Amino acid sequence: MIRAVFPGSFDPPTLGHLNIISRGAVLFDSLDVVVAANARKIPLLKPQQIRILLEEQVRNLKLPSVKVVLHNGLIVDYCRSINATVLLRGVRSSSDFDYEFELSILNKQLGGGIETVFLPTEPRYLILRSSTIKEILKYRGDISEMVPPAVEKALLKLE
Ligand code: ADP
């Protein structure tokens, strides 16, 4: 039984995130998507709202082994609490990889050997990043190809 955790700020959840979730659901017996605020990023949606949006998407995708939770604190502590042995992360580029690689070493140290598994993004999601979406939204650009309709609706309500 391999339990995996996919942590992120998911602010906002994108089609790129959902792609990693769908692919992770195939690889592991269970996958917990953990919504955790990233102190280095300016928040847009509230974590609770993100959780509800992600849950709705997971339901639509019919992924019964996937659960969405909120967590404050170290991600490795969450992993320990559910006996997860794998951290799942997506990578888009070599700059993503540099950061993710360091983070995986840190988490392995902190988490008593927890392994990080990287999934390369699919080409169509290569340019999808939450920070770009925030920027496009600011200038009222079209984000309908980047996020699910329910997420777009929630974001448009913010203004
Ligand atoms: P964090 O603030 O923890 O980096 P993000 O919500 O930005 O959280 O990202 C969560 C995870 O999803 C990270 O592993 C990130 O690399 C991955 N990710 C984000 N966008 C994409 C995408 N378009 N394709 C594949 N993986 C992605």
- What portion of residues belong to β-strands? 15-25%
Largest sheet: 5 strands, parallel
Low-confidence stretches: none
- What Rg is obtained from the alpha carbons, in whole angstroms? 15 Å
The level of helicity is 40-55%
Given helix and strand content, the structural type is alpha/beta
Count of runs of 4 or more consecutive helical residues: 6
CA-based shape: globular
Question: What is the succession of H and E elements?
Answer: EHEHEHEHEHH
Q: What layout of secondary structure does this protein have?
A:
Elements: E1 3-8, H1 15-27, E2 30-35, H2 47-60, E3 66-70, H3 75-82, E4 86-91, H4 94-110, E5 115-120, H5 130-138, H6 149-158
The chain binds adenosine-5'-diphosphate.
Q: How would you characterize the overall build of this protein?
A:
With 159 residues, the chain is an alpha/beta fold. Helices cover 45% and strands 18% of the residues. The protein has helices spanning 15-27, 47-60, 75-82, 94-110, 130-138, 149-158, and strands spanning 3-8, 30-35, 66-70, 86-91, 115-120. Strands 3-2-1-4-5 form a five-stranded parallel sheet, sandwiched between helices. Strand 1, helix 1 and strand 2 form a beta-alpha-beta unit. The protein is globular. The N and C termini lie far apart (44 Å). Residues 8-10, 14, 16-17, 20, 38, 41, 89-92, 96, 121, 125, 128-130 line the site of adenosine-5'-diphosphate (ADP).
